[in-house]
Structures are given as structure tokens and as C-alpha cells.
Amino acid sequence: MAFYLGPINDCEGRIRRDFTEFARLWTQVREDWSDERCRRFEQENLSSLGPALSRFTGTLNEFCDSIRKADLELKDDNLPSDGLD
User: Euclidean distance between the first and final Cα of the chain, in Å?
Assistant: First the structure.
């Protein structure tokens, strides 16, 4: 029986889309709010989001790769397919 990765991949896609939308909206906000408070807020609260998202999605991809490898290792070629592959 294979582990179905569809929901995990869907979640990753949603996170990426939402972050892209957030970045677009933040760019608009910065056009109207460009003072020291904005720069401080950006530095203290937003500067780590992009790298954190990259680390998270990288780890998620490694997790999915490990699941695929485990599925292949555990697959019993002598049994008929259960239709979930």
C-alpha cells in the first residue's frame, strides 16, 4: 500500500501561493508606509519568513522523498496491486 502524498503536495502549493500573495500585498503596503517603523517591523518580523519558508519546503520535499523510498522498499512485488499505487 502506497502512502498518498497528494494532500502534502497540495499543502505545500497553498503555502507557496499564500506566501507569494503576502509578498505582493506587503509590497503594496510598503509603498504607503516607508518610515523607520516600517523598516524596523520588516527587519524584526518579516526578514526571516522567506528563508524559513525555503527551509520548510525543502524539509517537506525531503520527507516526501523518504516516504517514496520507503514505499518502494516495502513494496511486495509478489502481491496483486491494491489499486492505490
Answer: 7
Q: What is the pTM of this model?
A: 0.68
Distance CA 56, CA 40 (A): 25
37-73 residue pLDDT tens: 999 999 999 999 989 999 999 999 999 999 999 998 8
**Residue 54: which residues within 8 A CB-CB, separation 6 or more?**
none
| Domain layout of the chain by residue ranges | 6-73
Compute φ and ψ for 83, nearest 5 degrees.
85, 5
**Contacts (Cβ under 8 Å, ≥6 apart) of 5:** 64, 67, 68
Q: How far apart are CA 40 and CA 43, in angstroms?
A: 5
